[in-house]
Design goal:
Elements (H helix, E strand, L loop, with lengths): L16 E8 L6 E10 L6 H17 L3 E10 L6 H22 L10 E4 L5 H10 L4 H4 E2 L2 H13 L5
Parallel strand pairs: 2-3, 3-4, 4-5
Antiparallel strand pairs: 1-2
Length: 163
C-alpha cells in the first residue's frame, strides 16, 4: 500500500522572519536565548502563529537556555488570542523537562520558564491586552529594550518581585 504524502514546509504557514541569539544574563550568568520574530501577526495570516510557536520550540530545544527573551520589535500585532500560543511555547517546552533539569540545577530552577518580551509601538498595545486576557501583568513581561528585559530575567531567577 502506497501512502499519499505531500511535501510541506513551515514557511507555508505564513510570512515570518526569525533569528536566534545566545548569551548569558548579566547578574546570574545563566544561559539566555533571544528569539527575534518579524512579520505581521493577524488573523488573515493564522498559520504564522503556529509557525512562530514552532520556531520558539525549536530554539529552546536546540540551545536549552535558562531564560528567554522574545524580541517582538519587528512584529505587527494588535489583537487576537492566537498569539497566546506563541507566548506559551516556552512553557510547553520547559514544564515536561523541569523535574529532571531541576535535579541537575540543585533545585534552583524556577517553576515556570523565565520569559520577557521586548516590544515596540507596532505590538505594545496588542501584547498588553493579550497579557491582561491571560491574567498576566504586562509590566512584569513587556520591556522597551533588551537590557531591561535581561535585567528582569535576572530578577526572576533571583526570586525578586518585578512590580
Amino acid at each position: 500500500m502506497a501512502l499519499d504524502l505531500q511535501d510541506c514546509s513551515l514557511a507555508e504557514l505564513g510570512p515570518l522572519g526569525y533569528a536566534f541569539a545566545r548569551g548569558t544574563l548579566p547578574d546570574t550568568r545563566q544561559a539566555l536565548l533571544s528569539i527575534r520574530l518579524e512579520g505581521e501577526f493577524a488573523n488573515e495570516h493564522e498559520g504564522v502563529f503556529d509557525y512562530a510557536a514552532a520556531v520558539v520550540m525549536a530554539g529552546l530545544e536546540a540551545w536549552q537556555p535558562w531564560a528567554v527573551i522574545l524580541d517582538l520589535r519587528a512584529v505587527t500585532y494588535s489583537w487576537g488570542d492566537r498569539m497566546e500560543n506563541v507566548l506559551m511555547a516556552s512553557q510547553r517546552w520547559f514544564l515536561p523537562l523541569r523535574p529532571a533539569l531541576n535535579v541537575f540545577a540543585g533545585g534552583m530552577l524556577p517553576v515556570v520558564m523565565p520569559q520577557t518580551i521586548v516590544v515596540s509601538d507596532s505590538c505594545r498595545d496588542g501584547m498588553a491586552s493579550l497579557l491582561r486576557y491571560m491574567d498576566r501583568e504586562p509590566a512584569e513581561m513587556l520591556f522597551e529594550s533588551m537590557a531591561d528585559a535581561a535585567r528582569a530575567l535576572d530578577r526572576m531567577l533571583e526570586g525578586v518581585p518585578l512590580v
